[in-house]
Design a protein that fits this description.
The structure holds two protein chains of two kinds.
Chain A (H helix, E strand, L loop, with lengths): L1 H9 L11 E6 L10 E4 L5 E5 L4 E6 L2 E6 L2 H13 L6 E5 L10 H16 L5 E6 L6 H21 L7 E5 L20 E6 L1
Parallel strand pairs in A: 7-8
Antiparallel strand pairs in A: 1-4, 2-3, 4-5, 6-9, 7-9
Chain B lengths: L1 H17 L5 E7 L2 E5 L2 E4 L5 E2 L4 E4 L4 E6 L4 E4 L4 E9 L6 E9 L1 E5 L2 H5 L4 E4 L4 E4 L3 E5 L3
Parallel strand pairs in B: 9-11
Antiparallel strand pairs in B: 1-4, 1-6, 2-3, 2-5, 5-8, 6-7, 7-10, 8-9, 10-13, 11-12
The chains are: A alpha+beta, B alpha+beta.
Amino acid sequence: MIRKILVCLVLAGLAGACAPQDRVLLLPGEDGTAVGAIAVLGKAGRTVSVIDTAYTEAMVSGETIASKPTDAETVRRKDGDLLDALPKAPSSYVLYFTEGTTTLVPASEAALQTLLKDAAERAGADVQVTGHTDTVGPQASNDALSLKRAEAIREMLIGRGLAPELVRAVGRGERELLDQTEDGVSNARNRRVEVTVR
Amino acid sequence: MLKRIVALAALIILVPALAQAEIGRIKKSKGTATVERAGAAMAADSGLALEQNDILVTGPDGRISVTFIDNSRFSAGPNSRVNLEEFTFNPTTHEGGFVTKLEKGSLAVISGQIAKQSPDAMQIRTPTSILGVRGTRFVVEAGQ
């Protein structure tokens, strides 16, 4: 410790020589999706630097950054266990219903069986039911409508054996269209319920 | 009568604590792995619902894996303290804020809907640095 302090005193002229350094490793997106980015932020959220190349390892101390490239093999060796422990990606199931009811169309019955099995087998599983509408009507009423639909389907899933405390209902209104349409367009594919098993 | 009033008052005080919103769930853990909530430690068992301000704590052989309600995912490595300091999320608009303090140790992250909706709304802070998350898969190890 004393030696470290002495070294620090000797190196006091070199910025950041003694401050702890964080290691930041940016990886490609999961399953071959595009790489994202990590911003090193300064005071008041100012962007100091952006790391945006996959397989970059940066040593960061406050606003001081030293980056170098690394490779998949090195990552596997150093961080393989940590990355392998990430939870499994959430799965998404889209269900369709006879209009105005909570009766599944026959084609969605298989998806329901698969999602129930997924929820039963996943460790520490929880389930989200998200309602989506088409673009008919104003946004606020579509938010309410999609939530109401999601709540009805939540009840249906509880009836099929899911524990109530594990299922939440969410309305996303017309924000996530499956078919991109103009405003005010009736579209059966957009009127759907998505069930996410996490 | 007085007893009833006291019981009722206790219930009123307790209700907000019970109503604390779930922000995610522990999917798996191994070794020495606990969650600190309001100063008390509990076992980080699979299925435990997490709340804002919870701290994930692992020992030398410990690991904790979490999926949050915006689909963000964490894996905390051994000898870590991960403070889930701020988590707000509107599931309808996907707007929110997610600030994690990595007090020590290591964390692998796959970001979710909060980071996708607003750049830098998700942040990882270490004792020395502030990182804004613009997606998606990365590792942070706090220096010591």
